[in-house]
């Protein structure tokens, strides 16, 4: 097993970015969804990135964005990936890919028909984030789902030759249980926070568990 990708999401301050960037994570995520508690203004993120110069890839999280909204963010932040967390259609995703030439990840909420939804985006989505389904929330809920299904999500994403991250309720205390199901990527937000700020010790604990798991089976 190769070491799973790790995305530290929901960074909302210069301090958060510094802590996340100083880890061995592969991706840093920023929420550009207004009226959510982790929303960040793109111009602020641009300042933090210039100051910190993170080595990780930058992921912008959006819900049903317009091309204009994406253009505004990309004016300030050189994103590597656009992550769509809403009810975006195949044609809307194609339009975004054509406009910006960036990889697009689609969030699919864990449900009975989640695998069928992944098939709908086959050849269009460049990756998936499988998250818990919580009524009235798009993500960042700290709620996990039944991880025994992870193998199915990984199988379908492998068939499509794209990446698959698992999100929702991942913490330093339970990440080893998730890693037993060999996810390709893990996506963590609330699980690395204390008092709504990124917690350096929790980030280090997560990364340590990831490294320990890979070492134990290699």
UniProtKB/TrEMBL annotation:
GO terms for biological process: L-tryptophan biosynthetic process. Residues 7-208 form the N-(5'phosphoribosyl) anthranilate isomerase (PRAI) domain. It catalyses: N-(5-phospho-beta-D-ribosyl)anthranilate = 1-(2-carboxyphenylamino)-1-deoxy-D-ribulose 5-phosphate. InterPro entries: Aldolase_TIM (IPR013785), PRAI_dom (IPR001240), RibuloseP-bd_barrel (IPR011060), TrpF_fam (IPR044643). It comes from the Bacteria. GO terms for molecular function: phosphoribosylanthranilate isomerase activity. Its EC number is 5.3.1.24. Pathway: Amino-acid biosynthesis; L-tryptophan biosynthesis; L-tryptophan from chorismate: step 3/5. It holds the Pfam family PRAI. Keywords: Amino-acid biosynthesis, Aromatic amino acid biosynthesis, Isomerase, Tryptophan biosynthesis. CDD domains: PRAI (cd00405). NCBIfam families: PRK01222.2-1. Belongs to the TrpF family. This is N-(5'-phosphoribosyl)anthranilate isomerase.
